[in-house]
Specification:
Shape: globular
CATH topology of the largest domain: Arc Repressor Mutant, subunit A
CATH architecture of the largest domain: Orthogonal Bundle
Radius of gyration: 20 Å
Strand order of the largest sheet: 2-4-3
Distance between the termini: 46 Å
Largest sheet: 3 strands, mixed
Number of strands: 8
Length: 149
């Protein structure tokens, strides 16, 4: 009887599985580096794609938290936690002169996104186009980026 109650407690205390967050487009940068700082930067801060999206929607696009959480397909409290995490990471990178690196995170895109390995262009293609070429340099050296990188 005691074994059953211990195993039941472990099941109950397990956290919920994280649902992927919807984002419109991947960040257009791999990393930002401090410029004008004496010596090397002191490390790296990893900004998740969903954190980037929260900053973009709330601060750049000027959406309310409610509007932004609807676009990302998450609850308002979850959006607030993601947004706060992004702000803290950016502040840490600025104050401590650290690099900001974009990291895939727990997201999915609303469309298929590709990256040209020749010119590093990020783009989408309509479903009606079967030939996969970079619109900038016409290279066929492209990679699908809708999965973990």
């Amino acid at each position: 009887m005691r074994v059953f109650s211990l195993s039941l407690q472990k099941i109950i205390s397990m956290p919920r599985r994280r649902q992927p967050r919807k984002i419109v487009a991947p960040p257009k940068f791999r990393e930002y580096r401090p410029y004008g700082h004496q010596g090397e930067s002191t490390g790296t801060v990893e900004l998740l794609y969903e954190e980037y999206e929260s900053i973009k929607l709330a601060d750049y696009d000027g959406l309310s938290h409610h509007q932004a959480c609807v676009l990302m397909g998450i609850s308002r409290p979850t959006f607030a936690r993601i947004y706060e995490s992004a702000r803290r990471k950016i502040a840490q990178a600025l104050v401590e002169t650290k690099k900001i690196k974009s990291v895939f995170g727990n997201v999915y895109f609303d469309r298929n996104w590709y990256k040209c390995t020749k010119c590093h262009n990020l783009f989408t293609l309509p479903d009606s186009i079967h030939e996969r070429l970079c619109p900038m340099c016409k290279s066929n050296k492209i990679e699908f980026i809708n999965s973990n990188q």
